[in-house]
Every structure is written in C-alpha cells, then in structure tokens.
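Retry 2 of 3 after timeout on previous attempt. Resubmitting structure tokens to design endpoint.
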C-alpha cells in the first residue's frame, strides 16, 4: 500500500521516564496513501472534520510534555480506515461522512479493505499493545468533535468525558470538571461509547482492566495554538488529579 519513503502507519513519541500515561489519537492525521489518490475528495474536504479530528494533535503533543506521556498517533485519515472501529465494523471504511460521499470507498473489494486493515489498522493497534505491555499503564484516547453536525442538535459542551464499562477515571474526571464554573462538560456526550461503536478502549484497556477514558474537545476551542495550550494545561491538571482520586482505596 505504501510507496518507499512514505509516512508509516503509526507515530510514537516516547517518554523520558517510564511514565504510566499512554495517550492515543486515532484520528490525528488527514493523510491518504499515495496509492489511493485523494479518495475522490477535494483538498478542502480533506481539511474538514470528516477527515480528521481538527486541533487534537496539537493538544496531545502539548499534553504529552506536561504528563511526560507516551503519545501514539495515526497519521492517516479516518476516511482511509477508522482505527477506532472494530475490523469487522461496516463503518470501518465509510462510504459517506456528514453528507459527503467518499467516492474512493464505494464498492471496495474485500481484498482492498483487508489491505487497509493489514497496512494501517493492524500495525497501529499492535503498537498500542506493545506500549501497554511495558508496565502498569493508564490509557487516555483524545478526540475532537465538530460543534455542528448535519441532522444533530447543537453541541454546546466544551469537553466530553466518554466511557464504557470501566468508569473509575471517567467518574473522577466528571466530578472535577463539573465543579469548574467556566467548563461545560458532557457526560458521555456528544457520543456514548459501547463495545460495538468504539474499538481502542474496549479492546485494549477494558480487556486489561486498567484505568482509561476517552476525551473529546470541541474543535473551535483548539484550532489555534493558544487554545491548544490552554486545553493541554487544563487536561494535565485534571487528569493527574482524577487519577489520584481513582486509585485511592475506598473509604
Ligand atoms: Zn475522533
């Protein structure tokens, strides 16, 4: 799938110390492998929220420095393959997104689909496994959401705390963020998570029983460097505090 010298399917930035934090961005990038052209999309479509999580890579890189975390990111667009979906999910390679038809994904052969899994999804998740195997870890996935999605109600939240069965870290974070007068936090909003609609957290973290949470930040708050700085600093503070509370023994 990839030409010689083309960007690989996963990027890892390691810690200096053996920190327990692992940050993952499945939708950090909007690249398309050269062999797939543009998937039939205009450049402007590739810069929209349908292709990637706008602003989140900047937040994640700054947060990584605050926490001395390992950061694992996906450079290729979720329109090529969505690395936060199960390999069997029909939406793994989507044929349309927020009203835009992805012509390069129409009538994909099983071989073409498997090729994207083998070259992007599989190595990306193998990398997460390797990093989690290094010791007692906490897995935080980072995303951003568009404030306006066709057919959906407006999304007023600044930040969403998204969780499935493992809720210790999410519960602590929700308590801390809800007490902040300037922060409007969504409790499993703008999305809720289940075993079928999300892959990384159920597959890697809940299977291991480790602390985990997915965080969503509204895109218009993190389009510039200042917004990314502010949210990274706030996240570093509240994640550290929330983890401390999550691992306290019950009274
Ligand atoms: Zn995302």
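Retry 2 succeeded. Sequence:
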């Amino acid at each position: 799938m990839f030409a010689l010298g083309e960007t690989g399917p996963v990027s890892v930035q390691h810690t200096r110390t053996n920190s327990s934090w692992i940050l993952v961005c499945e939708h950090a990038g909007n690249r398309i492998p050269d062999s797939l052209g543009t998937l039939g999309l205009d450049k402007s479509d590739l810069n929209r929220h349908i292709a990637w999580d706008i602003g989140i890579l900047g937040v994640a890189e700054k947060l990584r420095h605050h926490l001395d975390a390992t950061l694992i990111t996906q450079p290729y667009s979720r329109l090529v393959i969505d690395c936060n979906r199960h390999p069997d999910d029909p939406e793994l390679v989507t044929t349309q997104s927020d009203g835009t038809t992805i012509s390069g994904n129409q009538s994909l052969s099983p071989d073409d689909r498997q090729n994207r899994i083998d070259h992007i999804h599989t190595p990306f998740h193998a990398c997460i496994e390797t990093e989690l195997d290094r010791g007692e870890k906490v897995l935080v996935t980072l995303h951003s959401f568009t404030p306006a999605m066709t057919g959906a109600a407006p999304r007023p939240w600044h930040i969403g705390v998204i969780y499935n069965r493992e809720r210790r870290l999410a519960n602590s974070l929700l308590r801390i963020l809800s007490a902040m007068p300037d922060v409007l936090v969504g409790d499993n909003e703008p999305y809720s998570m289940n075993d079928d609609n999300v892959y990384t957290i159920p597959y890697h973290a809940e299977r291991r029983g480790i602390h985990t949470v997915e965080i969503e930040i509204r895109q218009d708050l993190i389009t510039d460097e200042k917004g990314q700085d502010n949210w990274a600093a706030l996240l570093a503070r509240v994640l550290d505090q929330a983890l401390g509370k999550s691992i306290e023994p019950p009274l």
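Attempt log closed. The first strand starts at residue 11 and ends at 13.
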